[in-house]
Protein 1
Amino acid sequence: MPSLTLLGQAVVSGLLAGGIYGLLALGLSLSWGLLRLVNLAHFALALLGAYLTYQLGTAWLVPPWLATLLIVPAFFALGLGLHAVFAYFRVTEFTSLLVTFGVAVILESAIQWFWTADYRRYETAYATASLRVGPFFVPTLELLAGLTAAALALVTWAWLRFTYIGKALRACAEDPAMAVAFGVNRRAQAFLLSGVSAAYAGVAGGFIALIATLAPAQIWAWVGVVFAVVIIGGLANPLGALLAGLLIGVSESVTMAVVTPAWAPLVSFSVLILILVLRPDRM
Amino acid sequence: MSGAGGRVATGLVLAAAALAGLAMLGLPAFYESFLYLIFSWIALATSWSLLSGYAGYFSFGHGAFFGAGMYTTATLTTGLGAPFLATLPVAGAVAALLAAGIGAVVFRVRRLRGELFGLLTLAVGFVLATIVLNTRIDGGPGVYLSAVPLPRLLASPTGTLYLLGLGLAAATLGAAYGIAHSRLGLGLFAIHDDEDAAEGKGVPTFAYKLLAFALSAGLAGVAGGIHAMYVSYVTVGETFSITVPLYVVLMSVLGGARHWLGPAVGATLITASLYAFTGGQQAVLGRAVVALALVVVILVLPEGVVPAGLARWRRWRPRPVPVALASPALVAPPRADAVLACAEVWRAFGGIQALRGVSLRVEPGEIVGLVGPNGSGKTTLINVISGDYAADRGRVTLGAETLTGRPAHDIAGLGVARTYQIPRPFARLTALDNVAVAATFGAAWLTPAEARADARGWLEFTGLGRRAAALPHELNLHERKFLELARALAGRPRVILLDEVLSGLNPAEIASAIRLIQDIRARGVAVLFVEHLIRAVLELCDRVVVLNEGAVIASGSPREAMRAERVVEVYLGKAHVVA
């Protein structure tokens, strides 16, 4: 049994890793829950964002915060473009899974084409900086990522709950025909949401570039965990996605500390299967 | 049908024999390897489509079953020294058992449909890879099979693997054809389009999905066993990579996952085109091109190449529609020896009490009208009788049989048929096949060929004879309502539950529907008739039961029941006498 400090440190690291999961899950949860599009390309977009941040930083010395500011609007536009294709071909919930699977593979290949399959590491002066809180170390960057995830989740929640557009989006998800009959401009809102969701992938990418070692196949490493987070958190539920991300992050990191790192990937799926079996009406 | 089946079987055997003969004559090893890969992908893609194409449950876990087979063979041959060929059935069995275990859990979750199933199966691959990597099955370095003896079916090792691959591909295609034209296949197609309606027509959906999943995984497991020998060095990274699930989905969707030959065509096209891109950066480009093809095909030809081609061909040469053997109205009348009885049935949805102790009886050959304002519990009662909803308390019986607690397909099999208020035809099946599903699975339990002949009779009976080849979206509302009736009748029910069959019809259509229902009654069927149209209720029903807020407030002869004070009050409000 590891010491309490080690366990506490595991919880802290888990919470921080969970923030990234929550950040990745946020955009996915929105497009699945509100647009009925299961977007596997979301992961590829996030990784593309990470590589772009890396490229801007290493080749042209653009600082990461500026890179993110450039990437976010670009990804918003990319999200609009992708949605234009989906809308034109009337992609359904089911075919969206296949189409975005294809898009993800195309992006993966593109990343591998430009940056090769070698591991890339974006070295910055502050990459290893950390705060010391009592006996625990809190890496500054991951803390920033976690706080950003929490802020975005909160803002998104408030946006869906209190603004006209948010309510209209939720109404469209419940009953599109009826919402349109009440004067909701469904098309415009679907575009807006797709753009926002892709922009979130860009934000996540910025942090991934700074925190993680990059490799093209990383796209698939996230799919399972993040989908588990989305489902556990509940579709179109920003706060749920964040909390589920933290839950999975902590349980993974505690498993790593208590059992062995190699078994950590099993945790999220065990939690997911448990929840599906115990609470099948979660969806 | 059997003629076509015979021709396909002969064709498959001849093609396999020709390809086997080619190997005996001695093909260059390069071609044997290349063709082996095509056969392996044909087996994988075709086996995938058995569940995912036919029943529409897209699995992203086919790589896991393939990998389970690979590691079974690798472990048994290297660890226990088992002969290679003997490990192949074990590889299939291990994969099939794995799928059956997963299916037994996930298929029980009623709301767990399509996309969630896909994601769960994706997780299976990760979980299996983690387990294999961290246990003695692999442990990290991979497993070498180079020392395992390969039986000499042919002179060269590549020739032997070629023959094994060929055999498996032919067997898988045979299975795919056989299933597509069997009861199982018809049931899976119905599940694809509307699972609840399929269950209601008598398809044992849980068992069929489980069977298709196990069969599909088992064939992938055998393919994995053979492939372990082909690569002779098995690693977790290669085995459980995303390649297998990606290519399998792509090949099937490209070729047409709902057609038995589609995945094989897709597999051949893709394997051949991938061969053009080999080595280094070219492989990356190849993968991107394949992925782009997937995107384009799904967007432009969502049904796949083979069905699209067949549709074009049929426009040139329309297929003859099977002719009715005899009007089923004249063959064996439905058994009419049982009374439908509900005793004190209760059902709540959350805080809303939809049924409060409803009791009623319907005798054979009797039409009982069930009326009441919207929300009074009429449709809920039908759903409880048909088994779509469970009753909280109370019993529903048909003769000596208790219906409550049985799955819906069982109840359909006992002879209870229903119609849906909003018609729910199977969208991708023709009108004829829609009716044939009910005749194959309901109390009638005919073979699919008999069912099609029978279905023609029911279409004639309901006046849809000329629309047999039409797809549901080509029918108008009146035709779809009558298709619902034909589907209900084709199950040869003892009891038929009609949920607002007349709503939305014009006066002429209503008149013909009323005649039809009288015909049905004359055959000794018990009819429970839910309807808002009081004129029809008065004209048709022997007795009327009035529901309000989930409770029976009046019953008796139509005129009597409709004049009861409580009923008038519910429909028109209380009379306030001004003094």
Note: The two ends of chain A are 37 Å apart (CA to CA).
Protein 2
Amino acid sequence: MSLRLKNISLPLADFTLEVDVEMRGPVTAVFGPSGSGKTSLLDLIAGLRAAHSAFIQLNETVLADTARNISLPTRRRGIGYVPQDLALFPHLSVRQNLLYGRNSRVADQLFAFGHVTEVLEIQPLIARGVRELSGGEKQRVAIARALLASPRLLLLDEPLASLDAALKEKIIPYLARVRNEFRIPMLCVTHDRFEALALADEIVVLVNGQVMQTGPVAEVFARPANAEVARFVGVETLQPGRITGVHDGLAAVSIHHVTLTALAPAAPASAVFVCIRGEDVVLQRDTAVSSVRNRLPARIISLRPEGALVRVELDAGFPLFALVTRPACDELELHEGEIITALIKTPAIHLVPR
Amino acid sequence: MTAVEWQIVGFTVWVAALSMATVLPFGLALAWALARGNWPGKSLVETIITLPLVMPPVAVGLILLQVFGRRGAVGGFLHDRLNLDIIFTWRAVLLALSVMSAPLLIRSARVAFEAVDPRLEQIARTLGAGGWRVFFTITVPLAARGIVGGMLLAFARALGEFGATVMVAGYLPGKTATISLAIYENVQLGQDAHAFRLLGVSVALAFAAVWCSELFLRRNKTRT
């Protein structure tokens, strides 16, 4: 798939949505906080909204080009759209909903009715009314309805936001199955980083209508382009620091009175944000020699369980967070107030210009 | 009930139903345009539509008489070019009933259209539906309650119309006489027995219309 969005400009209430990206991933997540223009972007792609200026191209088809006065009507765009509120037609049965966008010409159908309903496990629901469905069932019916209209691209607006944690875990595999079974490109809007990690190959970070960063998910999460992205993708430790020297590709960075060694950033800058992910911080009792450059004596401020993990808040001369497993926490006999050694490998410290 | 009375009742119901059929297509189109569109002159149109509800019916009748009379703008054209007369024919009754009852249908259909979530219409379009298909398979069914409610109200209003009708159609037995006109005429002539029989029919019709609308609303409620 290739979805090109060029020169997009759409004035919204508090800011102007400005986008210039090309999406290639099978599944791309548009990731950003609530109210950053994500849904407006989907509406624009689906042709439900007109922009000031826009050039939108899906594979070889130009969907909209304000410069040439081209705007393909929504019904001809071949874009499946599952909005956040799902928009199932309340006066129709599940079957009628599913068949609403079905093209009568069999040759034009990409996906078989039986196949779609089987993959999403909605066969038992077909005879029911829409009002009799649970949240997760509605979600699957809405996705199936969009697929059965044989779209070339599927837009999902916050597919998991309205579901509780237990249901989310159930829906994610369905979305993965849709991706794998039907090989349909998906563009999925989310403000939840775990959702983005679970679903997407590529990610577009959108904050206040501006694209902050694009790239493979892991890349963006590990190497946020700026502090805003870093904060948003949930890097546990994010501290302002200063590069005091660069030598052999290694940078000495000082945070308060502590000096760390990091890989020197490509762009020269002295004021930086230091990003360290919690899972990259190792806690150690003894002082054995290792390859780790950054060894910091740190006081344990608090221990907070988070599922199978424990979030350890440390004072290493600056606030530092570590994520360790519960058994590790027990084995090390971590207690609040005591001093421990925190190890951070050089490549795990990511510097973004401030 | 005499044959003449039956004729009057039949004519009234027939012409009221015909006025519904006449008003429905353009009334729905106008209601939809008012609910969804944002165009210049919208509030002016809204006001004009509401006028027949608040103006004296006789005054509305006088306006229609001026416009559709042989010397009026529209009436003159129809008479000269098509040899078609409106005033003092059954067409005048149809005209008066339509103008007087249309606002009720339009207003209630408009509210019903406004209550339909535009998101549903948008998603129907992403599923490949064109404007007409969206309108008839999504918008109208979801607004059906308000539309039918408005139609029943407008029909009941048409059955009882008096002021505008008497101005443009007069009381011509067998030609333009409706129940309301006949009741008035009979009372004027002291033929109370006739008037009371028609009164009975009038009450029965009104009762039936309200009963139907109640039944309809209740059935809708249990379905939701």
Note: Chain B touches chain A through 17 residues (CB under 8 Å).
